[in-house]
Design a protein that fits this description.
Bound molecules: magnesium ion
Distance between the termini: 71 Å
CATH topology of the largest domain: Jelly Rolls
Structural class: alpha+beta
Shape: globular
Length: 259
């Protein structure tokens, strides 16, 4: 019996140590990540009325509101866990993971609509955080940036940790918003070296927020961006940030034109 209790005590001690180590690792990563946060200049607020656009005749519709048949879960390639309601709105199910398009894309024009929850939960990076990862790697940030101070290279319209948006064109929580994006895929030499970088132009709610900026490499929250060779076409990924204050955001009307 004594041996049993000693084993239990030792197991608890090991679990406590492992958890303490995990917490220490997370804390030290957060300190490293803070070094790449920029808090100024704060983009000027700009408003617009009606930026919504239907899919052009030659577009591939990725989210029409019927189902998630064009998507799957990124991590294990199983069925996407997000929910589509009767109104054709797709909402993130917290913790269900990122979703990835079945089809792979290179250079493209993308239209996407999203809505931050009307009831605000969380603040800064935990308020309605998602993201559009071109080629599964290069993130255009999705965040509720309406009166929500955060580091400006991480607010809505930013190329996360790379480029601050030119202005803050965010609509109020609960209102639908749009991104219209022109993305140019990077090219690599056969030996894996970068030949030409990726470029991105972004209109947010009809307002230019990124003007043909040169993407610096893979999006990373705590490391310097760097290019890693990949295929000419890769799937599009939508982020389940997973650490939000509680209310996940919604998407609808996503279409893409290959360039
Ligand atoms: Mg994000």
């Amino acid at each position: 019996m004594k041996r049993f209790f000693l084993t239990v005590t030792a197991t608890i001690a090991i679990i406590t140590l492992v958890n303490a180590q995990k917490k220490a690792n997370q804390d030290s990563l957060e300190k490293v990540a803070a070094k790449t946060e920029l808090w100024e200049p704060v983009p000027t607020v700009v408003s617009t009325k009606n930026p919504f656009v239907d899919a052009p005749s030659d577009a591939i519709v990725l989210m029409s509101g019927k189902d998630l048949n064009s998507w799957h879960k990124e991590s294990d390639k199983k069925a996407a866990g997000w929910k589509v309601d009767k109104e054709g709105i797709t909402t993130i199910v917290k913790g269900s993971g990122n979703i990835e398009s079945n089809q792979a894309f290179g250079s493209c024009q993308l239209h996407i609509e999203w809505r931050e929850p009307a009831v605000i939960a969380g603040s800064s990076q935990t308020r309605g955080n998602s993201g559009i990862f071109f080629m599964g790697r290069y993130e255009l940030q999705v965040l509720d940036s309406y009166n929500n101070p955060t580091y400006v290279n991480g607010q809505a319209g930013s190329i996360y940790k790379q480029f601050i948006p030119l202005v803050n064109a965010s609509k109020k929580p609960g209102e639908w918003q749009t991104y219209d994006i022109v993305f140019t895929a990077p090219e690599f030499y056969a030996d894996g070296r970068l030949q030409t970088p990726a470029y991105i132009t972004v209109l947010m709610n009809g307002v230019l927020v990124q003007n043909h900026v040169e993407i610096k490499g893979n999006t990373d929250w705590y490391k310097t961006p760097k290019y890693y060779a990949h295929k000419e076409k890769e799937p599009l990924v939508l982020q389940d940030h997973g650490m939000d204050g509680g209310n996940p955001l919604s998407y609808r009307n996503i279409w893409i034109r290959e360039l």
